TrEMBL record:
Residues 18-244 form the Cytochrome b/b6 N-terminal region profile domain. Gene3D superfamilies: Cytochrome Bc1 Complex, Chain C. It is a multi-pass membrane protein. PANTHER family: CYTOCHROME B. This is Cytochrome bc1 complex cytochrome b subunit. GO terms for biological process: respiratory electron transport chain. The keyword Ubl conjugation does not apply. Its cofactor is heme. The keyword rRNA-binding does not apply. PROSITE patterns: CYTB_NTER (PS51002). GO terms for cellular component: plasma membrane. It comes from Streptomyces tabacisoli.
Length: 546
């Protein structure tokens, strides 16, 4: 045997042959080589998006398990399960199967409760993730489309939660469906047709659960799965945003590679999220359908409350005066239709905000560095105002619970919410903007004078001063890396020839919005290098830290 044949490499193993076969047909190696080493920055606020993804995966897993036992039909049967208080009562098969899952299927109640908690956490994490993106300006070009994907996922998550909440056909979910039915009926002209189509006849209808079930387990999750995939693809394509700091710019990303570091951390965090949801499902009871009983049209639960993410819409309807207009034999229920319309309108304003801000600023550049919320006081104020408005209406949605638990007058709570609807967001905006301006002043003073050391020193002529420690160049860069755009202005009213210039309504609106967002008094000018050099050029030796 020759020396060359002795040194011949051993034949590839089965795993290597399979990898070569797949790479030759799918190009996996080149794809992995270009994408698996992609760098992702690290910050605690980025975990909100990961919680969204992991809770969505858990929802799919637990929901798949529940479909094996749930019967989506309103056909009536006599309950003969293991829960004694309901034995012999006529219930729907949907409610009967829900009790069967909760009482008799091994692990069924745990899976049900994990599923419900995961839905609540999913929507909460999406809201927190979108607020992080909003406050840091991470929606700017080229991420406007991804912002719309996230907004659509939030809206679909709310609707999917409503459909899943309604499937068990218990008294609580039936009360919520009756609420939704009334809101749909308030739509002028087409309201009765929409309600008849959705419910398959008069409320509650015999086909509603059968219609709702495929929407909940197939249509909405399928759309959401596609949006999640598109969202992640765009995150990979555009690269992740990062906060300002030394070595970070609009053209690079400083962080850890996707493989193996980021994937290892993400995998561990997935099991942390799963473990927390499992613990919540095991120790915290949620939606005990056996305690509510089956739905009956002549009954209503006391203290009926929707899931928290629907409290906004219910609060609007609860505190709205019962206005009605009767004309030509028709009744327009403004007390229901106006708040029913306000909810999607307010959400639409959130969807179009990135495009509105880009139009006001006229900024068409790409941005990959996130902004600190304090450096954009008006935007931060608007975000906090929206959150305060949501909190006020959430109190309105639970006005009966607040009244009974705190022993307050429900009328007083309702009027407080009505006044707070107009006053609280304005106060929140003003206070938040002032706080942001105060933090900007502190950053400016810190950049110019340095960090307070807490050391008091007496000068030779008897004056006492506090010694300041000068900041490092990296700290100075972080404090002053942000931009402060100038407000768009219309310019002079007349041209060089003395002829009055004409401005369109679009230009006037843009100028007013720009002045409100970036005009005088909206932000504190940041420290400039000239100011820093002028201040420190004559720094007395006695003021330095020994």
């Amino acid at each position: 045997m020759s020396e060359s044949s002795a040194r011949r490499e051993p034949p590839p193993k089965s795993g290597e042959r399979l990898a070569d076969w797949a790479d030759g047909r799918l190009g996996i190696y080149q794809l992995a080589k270009s994408q698996m080493r992609k760098v992702f920055p690290d910050h605690w606020s980025y975990m909100f998006g990961e919680i969204c993804l992991y809770s969505f995966i858990i929802l799919i897993l637990t929901g798949t398990y529940l479909t094996f036992f749930f019967k989506p039909t309103a056909a009536e049967v006599v309950y003969n399960g293991s829960y004694e208080p309901l034995k012999g009562i006529l219930v729907s098969k949907a409610y009967d199967s829900t009790l069967h899952i909760s009482m008799e299927v091994r692990g069924g109640l745990l899976i049900r409760q994990i599923h419900h908690w995961a839905a609540l956490v999913f929507v909460a994490a999406m809201l927190a993730h979108m607020m992080r993106v909003f406050f840091t300006g991470a929606f700017r070009k080229p991420r406007e489309v991804n912002w719309l994907f996230g907004w659509t996922l939030l809206m679909l998550g709310i609707v999917t939660g409503l459909t899943g909440y309604s499937l068990p056909d218990d008294l609580l979910s039936g009360t919520g469906l009756k609420f939704a039915h009334g809101a749909i009926l308030s739509v002028p002209v087409v309201g009765t047709y929409l309600a008849y189509f959705l419910f398959g006849g008069d409320f509650p209808g015999d086909d509603f659960i059968a219609r709702l079930y495929p929407v909940h387990i197939l249509l909405l999750p399928g759309i959401m799965l596609g949006l999640v995939a598109a969202h992640l693809i765009l995150v990979f394509y555009h690269k992740h945003t990062q906060f300002a700091g030394p070595g970070r710019s609009e053209k690079n990303v400083v962080g850890a590679p996707f493989m193996p570091i980021y994937m290892a951390k993400a995998g561990g965090f997935f099991f942390v999220v799963f473990g927390v949801l499992a613990l919540m499902g095991a120790v915290a009871t949620i939606n005990p359908v056996w305690a509510f009983g089956p739905y009956r049209t002549d009954l209503v639960t006391t203290g009926a409350q929707p899931d928290w993410y629907l409290g906004f819409s219910e609060g609007l309807i609860r505190v709205m005066p019962g206005w009605e207009i009767n004309a030509w034999g028709h009744t327009l229920a403004l007390g229901v239709f106006i708040p029913f319309s306000l909810f999607p309108l307010i959400m639409m304003l959130i969807a179009v905000y990135p495009f509105l801000e880009a139009w006001v600023t006229g900024d068409r550049r790409e941005h990959h560095v996130s902004q600190r919320p304090r450096n954009h006081p008006v935007r931060t104020g608007l975000g906090v105002a929206w959150l305060v408005l949501y909190a006020v209406l959430l109190i309105g949605g639970g006005n009966d619970i607040v009244a009974t638990h705190l022993r307050l007058s429900i009328n007083a709570i309702t009027w407080t919410v009505r006044i707070g609807f107009f006053v609280a967001p304005v106060l929140a905006f003003v206070v938040t903007r002032r706080i942001c301006n105060g933090l900007q002043r502190r950053d400016r003073e810190k950049a110019l004078h340095g960090r307070e050391s807490g050391i008091i020193k007496r000068l030779p002529h008897g004056e006492y001063i506090e010694v300041h420690e000068p900041l490092t160049r990296a700290e100075l860069y972080t404090l002053n890396a942000h931009e402060q755009p100038a407000a768009y202005e219309l310019g002079p009213r007349v041209d060089d020839n003395g002829v009055a210039r004409r401005f369109t309504v679009r230009q006037r609106v843009r100028a007013r919005l720009a002045r409100a967002m970036y005009g005088p008094g909206t932000y504190v000018p940041k420290a400039t290098p000239e100011e820093y050099r002028a201040l420190h050029s004559g720094w007395h030796e006695s003021e330095r830290v020994d």
